[in-house]
Amino acid sequence: MIQHKNRTINKLLGSLLFFFSIHSWAAGVGSDANPSSIGTTFTAFYSPTPQVIASRTPYGGRVCSLSSSTNGFTSASAKWRSPNIAGTMSYDGYTYEIQRTNISGIGAIVRLGAQFTNSSYAQANTVIGSQYKTITATTSSGAQNVFFGIKYWALVTIPGEPLVPGTYSLSQSETMVDVWCQAVTSNNDAHGGGYMSGTIVINAPTCSLGSDISSIITLDLGQHQWIDVRNLSVGSNFGSVSKSLSMQCQAGAWPKLLVSDKNNNNNHSTIVSLTNPSASSTAQGVGVQLFINNQSTPQQLATKVSLAPAKLTKETTIELPLQFKYIKTSESVSTGEANAIIELTFTYD
User: Fold this and answer.
1) Same CATH topology for 30-203 and 207-347?
2) Burial class (CB in 10 A: 0-12, 13-18, 19+), 72
3) How far apart are CA 305 and CA 258, in angstroms?
4) Residue 75: how many CA atoms within 13 Å on its side-chain side?
5) 107-126: average pLDDT
6) Structural domain spans, the chain
7) Which of the pair, 19 or 316, is modelled with greater confidence?
């Protein structure tokens, strides 16, 4: 009797082990093979608030599955798989948590919807963040599959983080959304996901000079009588000509101007020297000065001056009035040619 009973127990244990093997095979299976391409090319720009730079609303993709609907899925929830939140933004009636991507200054936002049948177009009404939120309807009977519905993906700028020009590929791990498919029995639960893919090209913001300027501009400061210049005090200006330049700048640019003495790059004064200063045909005792933006003091040479107080937050036209004047530099003045070359270098980094 004892031996027979032991054999019965052994058979029961064998049946139990066999049952667990079947249950393991029937457990839910998740799929991460749900990329959404969202590549874009744009110009880096600075903004005090997050800005959407690209978006897409693809549909579909199976995220979880079972071998049958027995003890199947009853709902699904989603969150960023590896949350790295850079802040929040309000856009189009929703408030999002911004997930950092692998690209400096670029974040991602997403809304999702999911259904238990592939032909149903669940709307992307659930904002995904750092905590799980339900993205499907709830059913008590259980379903064999969970499918994505509409997916709203968007790339946004992150205020305060630099945008570095270059070409980048979006990383799957940083943009992966984890979908937790919950079944009637927890052993049938599964995790799948979806992510952004694509190539992002960030161009540096630029400025372009208007049609009112060419690479070389010749300005005539006029002819002046020696006696009139001799009677001026040293440091006095005479002769004047004005020129206004315009420059169109993209958002994110910070336009600056460097004024240089073409005849002497090491000149850090406010007086541009004359060309061929030792020639007998060159005037002595005079120089040239440049006044910017109607200022009363001349521009120092070899020193950058900002044409905007900070990086531009929108496309802007910069108007730059320039005034060129002669200056008496010495009591000893001689007649002759008084030519000078001023080099203007515009930067916008």
Assistant:
1) yes
2) buried
3) 6
4) 10
5) 92
6) 30-203, 207-347
7) 316
pLDDT above 60 for 248: yes
Q: What is the CA radius of gyration of the chain?
A: 36
If one counts every other C-beta atom within 10 angstroms of the C-beta of residue 269, the result is: 15
Cβ contact 247:257 at 8 Å: no
Question: Does 12 have pLDDT greater than 50?
Answer: no
Contact 290, 244 (CB under 8 A): no
Using an 8 Å Cβ cutoff, are 86 and 99 in contact? yes
Phi, psi of 300 (to 5 degrees): -75, 140
Q: Which fold has domain 30-203?
A: Immunoglobulin-like (2.60.40)
**pTM attached to this predicted model:** 0.71
**How far apart (Å, rounded) are the C-alpha atoms in residues 312 and 302?**
24
CATH of domain 207-347: 2.60.40.1090
pLDDT for residue 7 is more than 60: no
Question: Quick one: 102 exposed, middle or buried, by C-beta within 10 A (0-12, 13-18, 19+)?
Answer: middle
User: H-helix or E-strand containing 24?
Assistant: helix 2-26
